[in-house]
Structure formats: structure tokens, C-alpha cells
Target: Ankyrin
Amino acid sequence: MSFGFGVGDIIKVAELCHKLRRDFADAPRQWQEINNEMRSLSIVLGDVDVCVSDSELTEKDRKNLLETARECRIILEELLDIVITNRVLDIQSSVGTGNIMKRVWKRLKWDPDDIRDIRGRISSNVSLLNAFLHRMARNNTAKLLQYVEDQDLCKALEWLCPVDYGVQQSDLIMRRQPDTAKWLLNSPEFRRWLEIPGASMFCPGIPGAGKTIMTAVVVDHLLLSPEFGEGVGIAYIYFNFRRGVEQTLSHLIASLIRQLAQQHCCAAGKVKDLYNTHTPGNTQATASELLDLLYSITMPSWFSRLFVIVDALDECQSSGNIRTKFVSEMLRLQEKVKINIFATSRFITEIERLFIQNGAVTVKIRASNEDIQAYIGSILETLPACVRRSSQLQDEIKDTISRAVDGMFLLAQIYASSLEDKLTLKAVRATLNYFRQQGIQSNTGEDAKIQALSQAYDQLMERIYNQRQGYKELAQKVLLWIVHACKPLTTVQLSHTLAFDEVRSVYDEDNIPELQDIISVCNGLVVVDKESDIIRLVHYTAQQYFEHKRECWFPDAEWTIASTCLAMLTTIEWFSPSTQVYAAEHWGRHLSLCPPSAQRRRQVIQFLQQDNLTSAWAKSMTWDLMEALDLAGNAGNRVQLKGLHLTAHFGLTVAMNELLADGTHLISPDVTDGKLRTPLCYAARSGNEDAVKLLIRHGSNVNVETLDGQTPLTIATTHGHEKIAQILIDKGANVDQPSLYSWSFLGPMLRTTALCIAAVEGHADIARLLLAHGADIEFENKKGEMAIFLAASSGHADVMQLLIENGADIESADKTMTTPLMQACKNGHLQAVKLLLRHEAGLERINNDGKTAMSVATSSGSEPILTALIEAGARKDHKDFLDQTPLLLAAIEGHANLVEFLLSKGANVEAYHKFIHRKAVFRKPRISDLTPLLAAAYYGRASVVATLLNYNADMEARDAEGETPLTIAASEKRYNVVELLVKRGADIQARNRRGRSALHSVWERRDDREIAKLGRHHNARAENARAYEQDVDYTPLIQADGSEIPHFPRTFKAVNSLTDQCVSTLLGALGVDVCVGWDLWTKRSAFLGAIGVLQSPVA
Model:
């Protein structure tokens, strides 16, 4: 019997085995032993079949499995041939067929050695298949752990920066024409920028020149170029004027870190460490923390080259000096680690100056004639038949438009689309003449080009308004919502909005227009980002155009949107959660931009006077995450919002005044919601100054306390509204009124003051205002934390400086005796540390654990902070109450860079408790009994171990239990450290006080692979390692009386399968006395020691 074999044929071997077992059912006793072996084989084959069907095999695993399965097939076929042959003989010599097989077994004589041989062959293959299953189980476990690791990293990256610019990059690359920007990639300036580490390239251009597409091409070139593969970090940012609020300095730095973390495992580990630091309190990293992290992950040992590409710097918000700060930080980073910077922008003097002063190469961006003509050529098939039929006219169109637009790609798109409704040669040529005239006028400068673009938008809108009525109305609605929405809309949100009938307050699914029609009726003004599903204007210049001509095209847009939102909120049907949530969050903002009218005011007041406010309205007013969780559980009505709360939140002072003055509805200015928050609290939170003033004029209490223990002043302080804080203080708000405040989502609520909150949040202007009005600078919360401590904890150096100038005590400690300097070190705030050091903060102050700022900084992992402390005179070998030095702490935490740094500064590589051996007799060993190398080995910090060994750390140092770095690493399953130490020459035979060696620890863990590694590194055991790799060694054992035990097991795997009785018998044969109380593993270890494979601790 034979058949072609593949992994899928495992089941055929199992079926053959099952058939033979039935044939052997009535066999004599000596044959039952083979039947038992086949039973084991049948079971393991079934397990292998299941395993193979659920796993992806490597080529090596597949090859090994096929070889083992073929051997199984050969053995089974030999047995089957014997049975078939004897059955045929018996049928020829027998009259009846009854009891045929029984007579066969009686007649068949077989040598016992043959039986032993075939049993051994089956047993060997069972062992090999079991080894395969164990290996697959380990692989699957590793995959599961990797999956968990990947999931943890995804959570950390999403926490760090939820925006993925890769989505925009993919969308841009899909839209580009082949060979676009080839001129830029081939330019000598660009090639030089690529070749020189630390070079900058600044590419300014007029609006619509194609800068964003050029940026995408540069990013794509770097990502796909073989010379910039592994070890090269690439990060990029696309600025967008509509995301100005979102694109803060922290967001920008976090985005760069996120992208680099996805390209290097060590950088990913740093991100997870920061994430784990903030997770317990559900807090976000500060800008200073992110900058420190960015500097730490951009080290040359991790990335051989680094490229940062930023597009449209002119669209980065200039308020708060964010643009200048971001560029300055990038240039500062460039000085340190030689990153290459590529940036595009409009012609803005401030931006150009930053790059020119840094020696950047400047290349002006303009769409080349080749790029423009290639684009026009790609859309000619969409033009009327008169164009499609004439190649001469097509060439004229390409030549005329490319000349007229003079490098403005966006204008070329608009011009080309304007030919779509020109149905005759005369109409086409007339339009081309117009383009030529416009081109002549726009060649006088950038302003003229922008004017030409504006005129092109005018013509586009005229074409839209000249469409059929249905097309025109749809285009008007689409553009109205896209232009005036408070945030970008998805295609689903826009479609559902268009399908809603605000007059009847009804959503009609049959009224949803097709997306293709939505785009078509807007004549190229609207595009869809395929990856994000956002529908938007074709270019930011279009947004600027509509804002400039708002009254012309959409004179009543804000009221149209506001009234639609109100209608959506009054409908009973919950038809589109994302659309209705938008309505709940933004109706008031649109309403606040509407010109007042009596009719509109009556409609709004009627809406606000409803008492059955829905959960959707409450959600727009969500105060914190805990309340959001309540709302998710359909508990919205518990918020008990009133119309006055809504007007205060959105700053609708006209409606608010009417509600307060309405004699038919007696409304108090201090009406409360379910958390005892008054309208003044809502106005203070949202920053609506006029609403605050109006409520105070109507007698609102400025010192009211909410159910959460907050006041209007602390609420305004938390959200950074300085002017509102000033108004409240001027109207009698108590600056020192204690208020409940939590530094984190699930943290404890502590009584604190507005000054302490300003210190935590970093609002220096409000802190200055509070101090000017006599705020208590020495107020302590329940934990003993003062404002200076809280500012240091959050890293707000400007607030700290202000507090110090006003007499704050920089040595004030909390109840754990932690000083502001220690806290700043703990949280990694370099600037705060430097400020405190300049004011001579105590370097040798210790907390309740005996740690100084140096020890605390080491645990946090910040090398720049350690540098600052050492330069200020901090001791490098200070021991805390557990006798831990900074070096030992760095080794425990796995900060290899800090270990290297401390050793380079002269830290003692062998520092540990000097009375270790004497004291270990009277107490349990502790971590302070370890040298840095022992600690690193115990925790599996391979990179730290390598660094310590480079500084000649003692590889044979011992702790109180006699453990060496090798034995302690082996006992803790730190196999990467074990392998490193063995390669460096560690004594593999070294034993601890209990007589256990590294090999014995690995043996007890039953990890065959690591046993083999140790065996290969141990010259005296090389022969046994080779025997292990062959899986089974059945060399006979010659006993003292000359007899032999055949097929004697001499390998770890073979011994691992011995039963208690069997190993006891073998020990007796070797003359080893078995002690009472030995368990099976001790007996196996003793046996291995007796045959020279393992130094048994019981020998």
C-alpha cells in the first residue's frame, strides 16, 4: 500500500493505524505491546491533524513532519503486509472462515527482537510527533503573547495620538498621476538633501501649486526607496487649517513619536512605559514629557537616519506661538541627532526666516508643465465629443491651460472641469481665449494668481447655479453644510442630514441622494477622502473663498443649520446617532452666529422651555467622562438640564435674558441640574464672558458649590478662562474657597484651592491673578501637596517661577517627604528640574524610602535629568533604605542607557550591601543583596547585562543564596540573559548553596530547547548535546555483571518520559541509593547525574 503524501494526508496514516489496531485486537500478549504502541500513535496522529489544520507551518516544520509521517506509514505498511500475507495463507488452507485471525496468530511465529525493534520504531516516532506538538504549542503561545503585546501597543499608540496621517498619505498617493513631481525628486537640491544627514529643505509655493501632492510623493519615495529601509525613521505631518484646534504642540510631537514607535521596538517600549505611567490616572502626557520622549527615542543607536516631513506649515495655527515652537523644536532636535527636515508652506516671511537662518536649501514649488499636461491628458475622455474627436484640439487645450495657470495645479483642475459643458468647437475655443487672457493678467505676481483663482471659483458657482433646479438645490445644501459645519462631516452624516425634512421633523431614508450625485452636482468643488470617508472642499482656498463671499452665496447658512439641528433634536426617532450627536453638540454654536429676529427667538425659546430634554441634548453638555458613562447607560434624564443651562453653555445671551425676564416661567438664575451645577458654572466652563456677566447681574451666586465640590472660580481656572476668573473675583468670588478636585479620572477627590488647580493645569496668568488677590500660596491638600509641588509634578516651569517669585518654599514636601525636585524628577520634567536646581533645591533630601532626587530620576529613566543633577553635584552612589544605588535601580528598571551613563560617570559597578553574607543568615534575601549585574540577570534585562559586562562587572558575583548571575537567570527563565552570559564565559557548573546549577534549573523547567543551548555551550557535554539533537539515543548500558540494558535512554527527552518505577529500577542498576522522599523529578535528575549528563544536586 502506498499513496502520495502531503500534510493533509496525516489522517490517512491515522486511519491505517486504526485499521491495524482492529486486526491486532485478538493478538497474543506479546503482540498486544505493539497494539498499545499503535494506540499511542493513533492518539498523537489525531492531535497532529487538529494542530496542523489550525496552524500555519514553517517550511522546516512541514519538512520534519512529513519525514516523521512517512516513517510512520512505512512501519504500518510493514505490519499490514504481514497481516495480509498470513490471512491469505490461512484462507487457502482453511475450509471455513470463522476464527481465521485467531488461527493466524497461533501459527505466526516472530522473533522477539523483531517485536522490540518495531516497538522501538513506533515509540520513537510517537516521541517525535509529541515533540512537534510541543513545539507548535510553544509557537502558538508565542503568537498569542505577540498578539497581546501588539494589542497593548495599539492601545498605547491610540492614547498617545489617535490621528493617523498614514490614512491621508494613502489617499493622496492614490490620487496622484504617474511621474508627478519627478522634477523635484531628480533635482540636485533634493538629492543633496537626501545624502547629507541633518540637512533641511524648505519648499514654499503659491496656493494651489500642488505642495501637498509633492509632499506625499516625497514621503512615498522615502518609504519605498531600498536605501532607506530598516533602521531609517520616517515621520510626517499634514497640517490642515480645519484641524487647527486639534493640532497643538503636544499633538504634533505625539504624532512623530507614534510613527517612530511603529518603526522600532525599543521606541515602542518607551511609549508603552509612558502609557502605563498615565493609565492609572487616565491622564495625558504633557508637552514637556513628549519632548523628552522624542529626544530619547531618536538616538542614533536606534535610527541610523531620521526624516521628518511636514506639509503646509502656513496652516499650522499661529495662536499660542505653536507654529514657531514646533519648528524651533524640530531644528533643536536636528542639532542633536541630525534629522533631515522637509517642509512646505505658502510664502510667509516668518516661516521662511526660520529655515533660512538654519541654512535650509530652498526650492520653490510649482506644478511643472509636464505634470499639468499629464493631468489634463488623463481627463480628456470626460470632455465633450468635439474634444475627444480632435487630437489637435486636445493638444491646444493642454498647451493653453498649462501656460495660463503658470504652475498653479488647482487652477488647472478648475479650468479643465469648466470645459465639461462646452459642446462645440466655438465654445471650447472661446473658453480657451478667456484662459489666455486670465493667464496674461495673473503673471504679474501671487496676488494676481489668487485673484484668478477667485474668479475661477466665481465661474464654478455660476455654473452650479445654472444647473437644473434639482441639481442646483442639492449642490446648495451640500456646499452649505460642508462650508459651515463646525467640524468635517463624513459622507454618512451629510447624507442623513440631506435626507432629513426639517419642516416636518421627519427622517426619510428614501430621500438619501447617491454619493456620486452629491459630488457631481458640485462641479469639482467637493471631494471625498476615501480612507477617512470625510467629504470636504477641494482645497483650503475654496474655504477662504466662501468665507469671503458668505453673504453672496449663503446669506442665511447658520440659521438653516441651527434650525435643522433643533428639528433633529425634537424628533422622537433616533435615526442617525452620529448626525444627531453633531446636532446636540453644535446647534447652539450655529445659533450664536445668526442675526437676531423675533420669529427665530420665539422658536428657540419654545425649544428651551421644554422640560423633557432628551439624552442627546444632555450628551452635548457632558461634563466629564464619568457622566458620559452614565449617559451611555440611558441615564441622560438624571442630568436634569434646563434651558438656562443650555443658553449659558452656548453663550446665547439674548435667549438667556428672555428666559430670566419671562414672567410666565419663574426661572431662578441659580437653577441647578442633577449635580447642583448652576448656569453660571456652565458659562464659566465654556468661557462665555457675556453670559457670566448677565447671570451675575441677575443675582447668580459666584460662590455656589456643586455636588462635586466645585465653584465657578475653580471651574473657570480648570479650563483656563482668565477673563472669567477676573470677573468672578471682581464680583466677590473667594479665591481660597476649598473645592473638590481630582488630578485624574479615577483618582481621589481632594479639597484644594483655585491656585493649586492653576498650578496643576499650568495656567500661569490665572495663578498670577489669584496671587494678586491674596491667594494662600502655602495651602496644603490632604496629601500635604502645595501649589509649588503640584506645578513641579505637572512640569509647568512658568507657574513654578511665578510661585517662587511670590515666596513659595521649594523644599516643601508632601506627607511621603517627597520634595518638588523629586516629583519633577519622577515625572520626567527637565525644565522644572533645571529651574529648581537654579534656585538651589536640596539634592540630598530624602523621602520616606530614603531616596534622593538622583534615585527617583533613575527610576523614571530620564538621562537629561540625571545629567542636570550630576552637574549640580548629586552623589552617584547614594543608597536608599533598601541599600539600592541609582545604578542598581537603573539595572532593575532596564534602563541600559542610564546604566551606561552612570558607569561613564564613575558609578561603582559592584555596589551592594557590604554585610550581605552575615545578615543573610538572619533574614530573607532581598533585592539589595544583589549587585547591578545580579539584579539585571534576575529581571532579564539583557541589554543592561551586556553594558555591565562591558564595564567588567563580576560574572561570578554571588548573592546571599550563592546565586551567580547565570544561575539566577536560569532559575527565573531569563534565557536571553543565560545565553549572553554563557557566550561571555560564565561558569556553567557554578552552583548555589542548595547545589543547583543553571543546567539543573533549566532541566526542572522542562525546556528542551534551552537545555540543548546550554549543552552546546558546555564543552564537556558536547556529545550529549548531539545526542539530544538526534532526539533519542538508545545506546545499550553494560551492567557490572556483564549483562546489558538495551535501548538505554541517555537524553533529556528520553529520560523525561520515564515513569517513577522505571527510573527507580535504572538507578538501582547503576548502584545509586534512592533516598526516601525523592520525587520523580529528583530521581530523574539523579539518574542524569549518574550517567554524566547533568550534575545532580542530590548526587
Remarks:
- DSSP finds 57 helices and 14 strands in the chain.
- The domain at 161-362 is CATH 3.40.50.300 (Rossmann fold).
- The first helix runs from residue 10 to 23.
- The two ends are 52 Å apart (CA to CA).
